[in-house]
Write a structure and sequence with these properties.
This protein is of the alpha/beta class. Helices cover about 45% and strands about 15% of the residues. The chain has three domains: about 100 residues, NadA-like (Rossmann fold, 3-Layer(aba) Sandwich), CATH 3.40.50.10800; about 120 residues, Rossmann fold (3-Layer(aba) Sandwich), CATH 3.40.50; about 80 residues, 3-Layer(aba) Sandwich (Rossmann fold). Helix 5 crosses helix 16. The chain starts with a strand and ends with a helix.
């Protein structure tokens, strides 16, 4: 193991025992239609809006779009919830997304279909262990990925998402900052390679993206020489090296929509294919391999915690008010600073781009 990656192998062993089986909700057409109708009525009746991640079931993504909600990556989910006037936010995703929504919207009620929906990156970065490491390196600026608990964010100077991490780290490097990065070591290594920043990496990984295989992807590329390879930066270096494009979930969708290629090999969670196909209905999308000689496949390119979100659970929380997210006030106050710093940074970037376009 590289000396600049923080060893926490015992935590990884714990995560292995907490990964649930991947079980997508199966509904007959009559029940699905009934649930969709009831959910729409409940959303309207409770002044609630549904915010869903790209990796959730297409049924939830479609319902969010149809009801004035939003489907996006974690940064845009947070921004949408922050700006939307609804009194209740229903977050279909994993727990850290609900916590982020609550931190930014303390006056709003935040519900989730299933509070057991966690994230291997979040689980792999316990707040106590992370705080101890930060204490040992007080000279470093702490940058954490969105896929972390509220308590970990509370210790951070910055929160980032994959879509803006490169820009933030370049900004910090230009200011001479040395960085602690957590929790995804693959994303951290990619950012360090691209920016040349001095980064100390926490030893975390996404169980979905870690399973993509470089050797098998190379063989697939040989079988589909015209296909453009799209890779999420949480993937291993052997996979990233084969990419034609590396980017966030929103970036990957935009690449499919705008690039003239008609065939794409996609290395990220299969849930993204719903929006990709809507964005480019005439193009062929091929899942990158998680199987083969080097495979151990625990998730097979599908997050088991995202799969916990379903129509039945969504209808239940809207009807009962169950599964409300609560974040202790002191943690929320400290965690709000790095999140707001990110949102302000992103807003300033957007302002500069628009100003340059108008010039």
């Amino acid at each position: 193991m590289r000396s600049d990656v923080i060893p926490n192998l015992a935590i990884h062993q714990v995560i292995q025992h907490r990964v649930p089986p991947t079980v997508r909700e199966s509904l007959e057409a009559d029940e699905r239609d009934r649930l969709r109708s009831e959910i729409k009525q409940l959303l309207a009746g409770h002044n609630a809006v549904l915010v869903a991640h790209y990796y959730t079931d297409p049924e939830l993504q479609t319902l969010a779009d149809e009801t004035g909600g939003y489907v996006s990556d974690s940064l845009d989910m947070a921004r949408f919830g922050y700006e939307h006037p609804a009194a209740t936010l229903v977050v279909a995703g994993v727990r850290f997304m609900g916590e982020t929504a609550k931190i930014l919207n303390p006056e709003k009620r935040v519900l989730m279909p299933d509070l057991r929906a966690e994230c291997s990156l979040d689980l792999g970065c316990p707040a106590d262990a992370f705080n101890a490491f930060c204490d040992a390196h007080p000279d470093r600026t702490v940058v954490v990925y969105a896929n972390t608990s509220a308590a970990v964010k509370a210790r951070a100077d910055w929160m980032v998402t994959s879509g803006i991490a490169l820009d933030v780290v370049r900004h910090l490097k230009a200011q001479g900052e040395k960085i602690i990065w957590a929790p995804d070591r693959y994303l951290g290594d990619y950012i360090r390679t691209e920016t040349g920043a001095d980064m100390l990496l926490w030893n975390g990984a996404c169980i979905v993206h870690e399973e993509f295989k470089g050797a098998e992807l190379a063989a697939m590329k040989a079988e589909h020489p015209a296909a453009r390879v799209l890779v999420h930066p949480e993937s291993p270096p052997s996979v990233i090296e084969l990419a034609d494009y590396v980017g966030s979930t929103s970036g990957l969708i935009n690449e499919v929509r705008t690039h003239p290629s008609n065939e794409f090999i996609v290395a990220t969670d299969k849930g993204i294919f719903h929006k990709m196909q809507l964005a480019a209905p005439g193009k062929r999308l091929i899942p990158a391999p998680t199987a083969g000689r080097s495979a151990t496949c625990r998730s097979c390119a599908e997050c088991p915690w995202m799969a916990m979100n379903g129509l039945r659970a969504l209808r239940e929380v809207l009807a009962t008010g169950a599964n409300e997210i609560h974040v202790p006030a002191d943690i929320a106050e400290r965690a709000r600073r790095p999140i707001k710093r990110l949102l302000d940074f992103a807003a300033e970037q957007k302002r500069v781009v628009m100003s340059n376009n108008d010039a």
